[in-house]
Every structure is written in structure tokens, then in C-alpha cells.
Design a protein that fits this description.
This protein is α/β, with parallel strands linked by helices. The protein has 2 domains: about 5-135 and about 285-315, Quinone Oxidoreductase, Chain A, domain 1 (Alpha-Beta Complex); about 135-265, Alpha-Beta Complex (Quinone Oxidoreductase, Chain A, domain 1), CATH 3.90.180.10. It contains 9 helices and 18 strands. The strands form 4 sheets. Strands 3, 5, 6, 9, 10, 17 and 18 form a 7-stranded mixed β-sheet that branches. It has a 6-stranded parallel β-sheet with strand order 13-12-11-14-15-16. A 3-stranded antiparallel β-sheet has the order 2-1-4, with no helix packed on it. The protein starts with a strand and ends with a strand. The protein binds NADP nicotinamide-adenine-dinucleotide phosphate. InterPro entries: ADH-like_C, ADH-like_N, ER, GroES-like_sf, NAD(P)-bd_dom_sf, Zinc_ADH-like.
């Protein structure tokens, strides 16, 4: 059995997820289905999902050890440069879907096996490092703004916790789509960086100059009340994460009186990923990158994500 280097969860640690991370050797990916192919990973990026997995959220103990990672860009067996769409069939449920690293080994490895249908051409002008940012956080932000948030019908957006991968993506995409964008961050230095992206940066909880049409919510309990208060009549509050707690207090009176829509959103489709790539190429959009770490420094990259101090995506360059 041949082996490859990989970053994987060996166990769960709810309090100290970094302690459950192992960088070592795992078997090469194989898949019995002839429609699956193996991609040589050139770059990957981390998501909060990887920390949840190390904590034991969304990953069952009987699937350990599990190679982490949802995002990758690399080269397919025919030599094509590709971006990997990370939503794959759920082997436990024929009608269900899962993310790479939930049932099938993830992308934080030399190679990853995926259905051929999950390969999206990497735009020629985009580096592997840039492309590896897009499949989870950027796709999630794109779907939240467009399909779920129906931003085309609105003029303004609020993005909560703007340092995160999804949040920075939402800021950049909403600015590129010509909307008025407000974003909160607890960190004054991050607020400066948000302003440089073209958004109006405010402290968490601050009153906005206007009520917004769409709210992008990935923080959860710490910001949800502010999201409700900032929403214009008929606004969409789109939720895809709850980093700071998933059981906020919700003022239902405000929900019905303002006729608000609270919408869940998860990932996106392969077609939406292709649309996102086209948009990035057409508008010259480049992902916001917190830092690029060599694969041999994967533990350092995880520590950076875990610190909460990030601004944009934490990327792994698999060629170093
Ligand atoms: N459903 C899906 O398909 C999907 C896809 C991607 C992500 N997600 C979820 O979305 C969330 C965001 O993920 P991510 O990878 O983009 O980044 P992340 O690491 O969760 O985001 C970090 C940001 O969250 C904000 N934050 C964290 N704790 C906070 C607190 N107590 N109060 C206020 N803000 C806080 C911070 O903003 P500031 O420091 O700027 O204040 C920080 O920059 C995660 O929960 C993730 O699981 C879901």
C-alpha cells in the first residue's frame, strides 16, 4: 500500500482542536467507482470546518482517522488544471451529500480522490493558491449573496465578523456587484482593511447609516441581534455559520413586524462555483488571503486559523 503525506484528525478534542491534528502519512486515496479520479493537489485552504472536525462536530468517531480539508486546486490525471468542487455523495445516504473530509478523505494531502464531475477548470490567469480559496468560503458567500440573499433586488449588505473567509469573500463580491457594503469587526486593524476593500467598516453592534437589504451572518449568537436590528423591511438574513454560538436569542416581534426572511445557506452547486470563477475572471477579483503556508507548516496554518485573528483565507502551498 503506497502512502502520502497528509494532515488528519486522529481523535477529537472539543477544547483544544489543534491537539487532535496529526501531520503524517496516510494511504493513497483510492475509489472503486470508475467515475472518480485522483487529483494532484497543488494548493489547499483551511476553513473553520476543519476546526469543527477536530472538535468532533460533523465528523463521526468511526470515520477516524480522517484526512481534513475541503478546498483544493490541482492537476487531474489528464494534466488539466482544476478546482475541486467539494460536495460529494454521502455513502451513508444515497440521496444525501457530504463535504470532502466528512466521509471521504479531504484535500490536505498530496492527492485527493473526487468524482470527475466535481472538477471545474481553473481559470488560466488564476494561481493554484488563489483558486484553492474559492470552493468553500467563496462559494458559500456567493450563494448567500445571490441565490439565497437575492442581492440583485437590493442595494445594501451587512457582513458580520468581516475577518473570516466567508465574510471577506462576501465583502469583496458585494462591492464588485456594486452594492453598498457595511461590515463589522471587533478588531480596529481589520476594520481598516475592510475599508480598503471598499466597504464601510463599523464596530460590532454599531448603528448603520441605513437599514440593509441583505445580512450575511456567519458569527451567530454574538451578532444575530444586531443583524435583526440592521435589517430593512423585507430584508433577507442569510445564515451559513455560527462560529460564536448557534442558539441566539431571536426577537420574533421584529421578524414578523419587519417581514424579515431568515434563510439558511450551505455551500453551493458546481454550476455556482463555475459562475463564481467566471465572475472573478470578468471583474479581476482576487481572493483575500491571510497568508500562504508551506505544507510542511500545516500546524502553523491551523494555529493561525484557530487564533481568530485572520483576515481572509489561510492557504497551504503543497509544492513547498
Ligand atoms: N454552511 C456552509 O456551507 C459553510 C461554509 C463555510 C463556512 N461556514 C461556517 O461559517 C463560519 C465562518 O467560517 P470561516 O471559515 O469563514 O471563518 P471563521 O474562522 O469562523 O471566521 C472568523 C471570524 O469570525 C468572527 N468571530 C469569531 N468569533 C466571534 C465572536 N465571538 N464575536 C464576533 N465575531 C466573531 C471574527 O470576526 P472579527 O475578528 O472580524 O470580528 C473572525 O474574523 C464558520 O462557523 C463555518 O463553519 C459554513
Amino acid at each position: 500500500m503506497s502512502i502520502m503525506r497528509a494532515a488528519y484528525a486522529s481523535r477529537f478534542d472539543a477544547d483544544d482542536p489543534l491537539a487532535a491534528l496529526v501531520v503524517g502519512e496516510r494511504p493513497e486515496p483510492t475509489h472503486p467507482d470508475p467515475d472518480w479520479v485522483t487529483v494532484e493537489v497543488r494548493a489547499s485552504s483551511l476553513n473553520h470546518h476543519d476546526l469543527w472536525s477536530l472538535r468532533g462536530v460533523g465528523l463521526a468517531a468511526d470515520r477516524l482517522p480522517m484526512i481534513l480539508g475541503c478546498d483544493a486546486a490541482g492537476v487531474d490525471p489528464d494534466g488539466n488544471e482544476v478546482v475541486v468542487f467539494p460536495v460529494v455523495p454521502d455513502p451513508a445516504d444515497p440521496r444525501g451529500l457530504s463535504l470532502l473530509s466528512e466521509h471521504h478523505p479531504g484535500t490536505l494531502a498530496e492527492r485527493v480522490a473526487v468524482p470527475r464531475a466535481n472538477l471545474v477548470p481553473k481559470p488560466a490567469g488564476m494561481s493554484f493558491v488563489e483558486a484553492a480559496c474559492l470552493p468553500t468560503a467563496w462559494l458559500t458567500a456567493y450563494r448567500m449573496l445571490t441565490t439565497r440573499g437575492r442581492l440583485a433586488d437590493g442595494g445594501s449588505v451587512l457582513v458580520q465578523g468581516a475577518g473570516g473567509g466567508v465574510a471577506t469573500a462576501a465583502v469583496v463580491l458585494a462591492v464588485a456587484l456594486g452594492k453598498r457594503v457595511y461590515a463589522t469587526s471587533r478588531d480596529p486593524a481589520k476594520r481598516e482593511r475592510i475599508a480598503a476593500l471598499g466597504a464601510t467598516a463599523v464596530a460590532p453592534g454599531a448603528r448603520l447609516p441605513e437599514r440593509v437589504d441583505v445580512v450575511i451572518e456567519t458569527v451567530g449568537a454574538a451578532t444575530f441581534d444586531h443583524s435583526l436590528k440592521s435589517a430593512a423591511p423585507g430584508a433577507r438574513i442569510v445564515v451559513s455559520g455560527a462560529t460564536a454560538g448557534h442558539e441566539p436569542t431571536v426577537n420574533l416581534r421584529r421578524v414578523f413586524a419587519m417581514q424579515l426572511e431568515i434563510l439558511g445557506s450551505t455551500m453551493g452547486t458546481a454550476a455556482e462555483l463555475a459562475e463564481l470563477l467566471d465572475l472573478c475572471v470578468a471583474r479581476g477579483i482576487r481572493p483575500v488571503i491571510d497568508g500562504v503556508h508551506g505544507f510542511s507548516r500545516v500546524d502553523e496554518a491551523f494555529a493561525r486559523l484557530h487564533s481568530g485573528g485572520i483576515f481572509g483565507k489561510v492557504v497551504l502551498d503543497h509544492t513547498t
